[in-house]
Amino acid sequence: MSSRAAQTIAALRRGHDEFVGRLAALGPDDIVRTSGGAQDWTVAQVVSHLGSGAVISKASLDAAIAGDDNPGMEFNKEVWARWDGMTPAEQVAAFPAVNEELVAAYEALDGQALEQLRIDVGFMPQPLDVAGHAGMRLTEFALHGWDVAVTFDPTAAVPRDAAVLLVDTIGPLLRFAGKADQIDGAVTVAVRATVPDRDLGLVIDDVVELTDVPPAAEAKIIAPTEYLVRLFSGRHGAEHTPESVKVTGSLTLDDLRRVFPGY
Questions:
Q1: Cβ-contact 81, 5 below 8 angstroms
Q2: Which of 70, 146, 172, 253 has the maximum number of C-beta atoms within 10 A of its C-beta?
Q3: Which three-class secondary structure state does DSSP give residue 233?
Q4: Residue 1 confidence (pLDDT)
Q5: How many whole angstroms separate alpha carbon 55 and alpha carbon 102?
Q6: Helix-then-strand count for the chain, H and E
Q7: 232 and 130 in one domain?
């Protein structure tokens, strides 16, 4: 079986190719529509966010490969300002090349680098390995890719290969993004992910965290893996919730939506 880093890079490649194809089919009116998933942004602004993120991610990767320091916040601000200054058409047109450069840079890493390279992203207490760095990008890319896709297809889903990886990547974020105070008392939830099948636990107490399968639980949720990723990241509107999602016990799906307002 390939390493988690290699699996993540492969998911980024497939996602890139699909997303670029989707962008190529959009017209001038499409790209200024309000995003179906990130409703404070237009489609072009979502693409701009992904484009600037690609540039910044590649800069931190390049610095690690060269043995240099992270370029720093001033560099990031310059990148954001440059993309913010583009027209919607320019933002969409510029995206494919910069994201291709990032994905290709990951793909060029050899086996030793995949295991040993450490990347300073500038805002984490410790440098990340390649799996962690690429995983952060996959989280951003897959979720914002869905924000664009759902604008034109209300049944859009996070790609399966990305969703399988993102369940674990998103897990640590829930301690900061989950709002445990939105329900009364502590609750343990048995989580049954489907497509593919997997069992885990969710504890809502002083903080929110994913755990191993609980021996006992007050509530249970059964949902496709891709929907769990969207639920945890706040992309859980009723109009985009599959009929197969079931919540039983002491919680409702609306309770879980309050716990996960998005970030």
A1: no
A2: 146
A3: coil
A4: 46
A5: 7
A6: 11, 7
A7: no
